[in-house]
Amino acid sequence: MKKPLILALLSLLIARCSFQKETKIIVEKREREPKAEIKEEIIEEAKEEIKEEDLSSILLVNKEHGLAPSYAPGEDPIAKEALLALLSQMQNEGLNVSDRYSGFRSYEYQSELYADYVMQYGQEEADRFSARPGFSEHQTGLAFDLMHEDGTLLTNPLEASWLEEHAAEYGFIVRYPEGKEEITGYMAEPWHIRYIGEEAIQIRDSGLTLEEYINLP
């Protein structure tokens, strides 16, 4: 019984380490056009799954709700201003967080990333930590992956706890909290924050994920 568990943990650790490396590359390349050849079947499959929904005033993007390939707003200026204020405050408090981050990603760029993960780990494993093209929050221009000074994703408990407590004061929520994987569809990502605006405080205080909050009666 122990051997399968050890193998599973090793697999998850390898995937997380690679994800750290790939996300660091994203920051350096996020404004470049993708050059790698993308598997057409992955792109076509994603396009077929994208639904046109009448959502609430909060834009919900997840495994069930997608965006058109042509949707490319860039980084939202209000969200970016709030992000810079958040990063400045964290740094003023001596926390280990970099000015660098991963923000907006186009449909095409997400296609490249997702295809790379599928080739490395297979689709089932890739779906645990990477969004299919058209289903990434980064395409909204409202989501940001934060990093430590060394360029790795923000995972230290001190910084992660600060975000859980204070990100809402700047209009953000921690989008993929620990213990909510079955609801969000993704592994916990303490580094991934999503701009909501004033309602972020209500969402934080409720203890709900964005999916749960939007579906409240």
Automatic annotation (TrEMBL):
Gene3D superfamilies: 3.30.1380.10. Coiled coil: none annotated. It holds the Pfam family VanY. Residues 77-197 form the D-alanyl-D-alanine carboxypeptidase-like core domain. GO terms for biological process: proteolysis. GO terms for molecular function: peptidase activity. It comes from the Bacteria. This is D-alanyl-D-alanine carboxypeptidase-like core domain-containing protein. It comes from Dubosiella newyorkensis.
